[in-house]
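re the bet — no i am not wrong, look at it urself. input seq straight from the record:
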Amino acid sequence: MTENVQTHGFQAEVRELLRLMIHSLYSHREIFLRELISNASDANDKLRFSALAQPELLAGEPDLKIWVDYDADKKTLTIRDNGIGMTREEAIAHLGTIAKSGTADFFKKLTGDQQKDSQLIGQFGVGFYSAFIVADEVEVHTRKAGEPVSSGVRWASKADGEFTVETVERADRGTSIVLHLKDEAKEFADGWRLRSLVRRYSDHIAFPVLMRKEGEATLDWEPVNQAQALWTRPRSEIKDEEYREFYQHIAHDFAEPLAWSHNKVEGKREYTSLLYVPARAPFDLYQRDATRGLKLYVRRVFIMDDAEQFLPMYLRFIRGVLDSNDLPLNVSRELLQQDSDVEAMRSALTKRALDLLARLAKEEPEKYAGFWKEFGPVLKEGLGEDPSNRDKILPLLRLASTHEESDEPKVTLADYVGRMKEGQERIYYIIADSITAARGSPYLEQLRSKGIEVLLLADRVDEWMMGHVREFEGKRFKDVSRGDLELGSLEGEADKAAAAEVAKENEKLLKRIRDALGDRVSEVKVSTRLTDTPACLVLAEHDLGAQMRKILAATGQSAPESKPALEVNVGHPLLKRLDSTMAEDDFAELALLIHDQAKLAESGSVANPGEFVRRLNRLLGQLMA
């Protein structure tokens, strides 16, 4: 008996995902079976957890399983579980919409290039919708655990933009997904092919995956997988391929992980952890409110998918499983936030994750370079958020520098310190909007002339990060755009004496420039930084830089006012034109132009671009007259 049949339209993002998946994932189409079996496993996990508080939910069918069946003549494939199931409302919500934050931004990245899009869709996670890679039509038959037989639901769609939902009678608890296979996908209605895929992709599923016995007309079922949670097995018995396949199961990722760490802790606290470093960043990596965390189990009972309490925010890219013997089975997110055992495990797991990254960097530097490209800016957040592990994070940094012609971040802080000049006491760096801009910055001129290496920073997090970092191996960091350059013994006594003499000789010029600029600057002085550029603006040590000001402005916040100093290169031809015989108006015009040029070099913009252009044009007109 059916009632209340309704037709619904897919959410726009679902329609787009289906269209792209069907065309972009053709070469990966066998992964649909992994995704559907993984969903069935999750449904069983959720029922087992719910049954802790409501044992009656398991009544009549306490053993949780997954069945895979097929009909070659009808070209159908069925994946069934006896897990938590869905209500009508849940079927509409879960199978018709995508609730992930940042979905719109994700779809903007899709280009129509099948190879590129397949990688992006892999990061997004395909789940249930992967069924449409191989099926013309998909039916879902489900009943929520604990609900009456009359509350079953049938959901169906042909991926044509719509789906139907109706209430039906269903005796079985859980969910059955029936795939009506496309002609070119009939290989998935073959018992040998299905068994090989289950063993390849789902051998580690903690529930038995059953198929009918081959070669005879029988109703007998037999397990195809080991049905033992992978992390509970001894490491010596687990092949690397099994670790990789398990990662793809929990992360819903096509790519293989870069590295993993499997550990069992015994003693005061007993738990097993299996941590993975992904090869690619998820699309919502920079949305700090996105779901993250480890899959949490307590004594092999699934508790939650995203237990974020066990790793800090800057390690939100780490995927994996944590299975504790000590936490209570009824643990909640609120209890996790207050539990001392959780804090101890968090500390240990954080160190283990950082050690895993250090091992990857040492043993497989090419893979680590790929990791840094994907996750480097996120890892940098840890320098400010996790002072206790700062010494572990600093060696993991990979940065661009003037020592390398390439803009790729390759340089370690140890590399830099090892190349420091004799007598050099500072690690010099500069922050800009891009590596190209940093490399061409006038602040580097004097240092470059002396052959001193400078680190080039351009990530949005860099200015904030450097505000929390003081030194590395006893060498203090120095921003070359702030305060005195602090060359120390790299600047000889003769150089210092000559600079003092030049400053004294140009006192009148410096005062006249200061008067012309008014309150735009805090002071005007002879530069020790410049060799080719007429002037630069120098911030005080604790003033906000251009990068932080842009970040605050983008979030609607105002930054405190600051007045930089103007350093001038008195040997530059433009400064030589600013002599005492120049008319006051012409002097002020040229002084303002030099200031605006310095402002452009410092922040990439001037307060009044139109006036700057008019002033520049007037000067050019005079030179051409």
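see?? The mean pLDDT is 87. told u. also DSSP finds 22 helices and 22 strands in the chain. so pay up
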